[in-house]
């Protein structure tokens, strides 16, 4: 069984070990060592990456209680050789910050509102915990985040201990392990949290940097709380700051006033859209007559082809229906990468067939009924071409 060096030293980034197994399974080289500081994916935490004697480690898994290292290519070393392992320091630091941060945040929710963590996920970009309830108040969310960061700023020591099952009863663990034999690895955040855990953790809470709750959602009766730590939180803050700064510059307002400016603009836009809709409604009968008079004839049928790029698709549908309600005609409306077709019931041609023809010729997709159909995913330039020459897709 592999001796797991990270169990006692999460900061170990280099080590030497003996090769005890080399396999080639499913086109992957799998290496087993007698000791390893590489963390395998488990407990919601992602694996370490790095190198074994110059060979890139792209994955680490746990199999039959062994740590198995997946290499990028065939290694030069053999079974029995001594090799040198090197852990990717940035990835290890990120994982340590996430996992220690998760312990802190989970305990913070217990302290603030009694919400317990039932599962955790520490992903590449996003981390989350699932709480044993479907909601918490906004104040509880903020207070838990504040408490978590207070614990970080206090730079409390984080210790690793190994205790028997009998000793677990003396520790205020968030969750008692199911296993009842052997020793248990306990991660203790001084005077705050105690958890049985096999992951890698910071030596003190200050190394987490910061915890920022980034979102929440209901998942199967639980509340999933998303969070970021350390440099991931800094990166998130940076792009959000840049966005707010850009918006505030557009409106020449302070960043804290950006939302009010955007809200006012949005309300003004809604009002203008309503006014435009009313004006369009008043003008539509006149436009319908003009379009019909300007339409082309194809085998005795009137074809109205319109390019309404940049306009509202829902409004365009109303326009098409208004035309065929008054005249016997085929209406084609192109809007950016979309095509809308309406056909009067008196005509033998099918709107769905026209969309099918357009899709086969130009690569879009869509469907509908004989009277009304629509398609999307077209090249806007192709839409302009078929609007200019609708005969290429209409079989009458």
Features:
six-stranded mixed β-sheet; 3 domains; Threonyl-tRNA Synthetase, Chain A, domain 2; six-stranded antiparallel beta barrel; 8 helices; alpha+beta; 21 strands; 396 residues
Give a concise summary.
This protein has helices at 89-113, 138-153, 165-168, 230-251, 258-293, 313-326, 351-362, 380-388; strands at 3-4, 14-25, 28-33, 35-36, 50-52, 55-63, 66-71, 82-87, 117-122, 127-131, 158-164, 183-189, 193-196, 211-219, 222-229, 296-298, 301-307, 330-335, 338-343, 365-368, 372-376.
Assess the beta-strand content as a share of residues: 25-35%
CATH arch. level architecture of the largest domain: 2-Layer Sandwich
Instruction: Assign an overall shape.
Output: elongated
The span between the termini is: 76 Å
Number of domains: 3
Q: What string, H for helix and E for strand, traces the elements in order?
A: EEEEEEEEHEEHEHEEEEHHEEHEEHEEH
Count of DSSP H/I helices: 8
Radius of gyration, taken over Cα atoms and rounded to an integer in Å: 32 Å
Top-tier CATH class of the largest domain:
Alpha Beta
Determine the mean pLDDT: 92
Structural class: alpha+beta
For CATH, the homologous superfamily of the largest domain is named as Threonyl-trna Synthetase, Chain A, domain 2
Q: Give helix % range.
A: 25-40%
Assembly status? single chain
CATH topology label of the largest domain = Threonyl-tRNA Synthetase, Chain A, domain 2
List how many beta strands DSSP finds. 21
Report the biggest beta sheet as strand number plus sense, adding barrel if it closes.
Answer: 6 strands, antiparallel, barrel
